[in-house]
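Entry 14. Structure prediction run on the chain below.
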Amino acid sequence: MTFLQGNAHTLSPRFSKEVRGVLFGWRDGARHGYRKGDTMLSDETSDQQTPEPGDDAAHDDTDRTPHPGSTAEAEERRRAARASRVKKGLVIVNTGNGKGKTTAALGILLRAWGRDMRVGGIQFLKHENANYGELRALKRMGIELTPMGDGFTWTSRDLDETQAKAVHGWEMAKVRIASGEYDIFLLDEFTYALSYGWIDTQEVIEWLRQHKPPMLHLIITGRHAPQALIDFADLVTEMREVKHPFRDQGIRAQKGVEY
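Output returned:
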């Protein structure tokens, strides 16, 4: 994109016009509910496409034109949302046995950082000396995502230490969440501490009710999210494994994809 923008004057008029049509015509199509290859987005997501720069005004959704293929029920939900203009800090849970829970959460941190929002988090199981690719990148971006674990695996022998580190991580997380210094905060792999009983789920929920800043978005990841947490959350996604390179082909974790 940078090459094209910086060298547009070197392109033939016809080629330049065609390139602009491909780049910006598809973007305009996506804004109206279509993806490349003319697959229409669902009714639930078609009104949530990325707006043009100027952003907040675009989110007011002043265009009242019905979305292509939209149902009456979906249009009514959109009208109600426009009228209420409700905003709140969400509790987001990424759970399930499939890959991508932390990856999706990191995507939100990246998007929020691009909006000059204050982001951070704690990783509950990754070793305190971990130096994975995401930690290297976030450090360069000035984002603090703190590993607090002992490198827990399913065969760990000293679970008492693992539990103690998880409890300490939660105490640190409470201080940061309540500080008012963050717009988005990640509790990565936190569900394990809950599902193993190291930290009481109901106590966590009650603490969040009382102390989480109203506009703070809190992301929690990990397998086996307790039902009480799912009921409490605003947005829950379950990752389901369909195929996996290790299980199906014996391919081990690879740099840049898993770590």
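The chain has ten helices and eight strands.
Filed with the rest of this week's runs.
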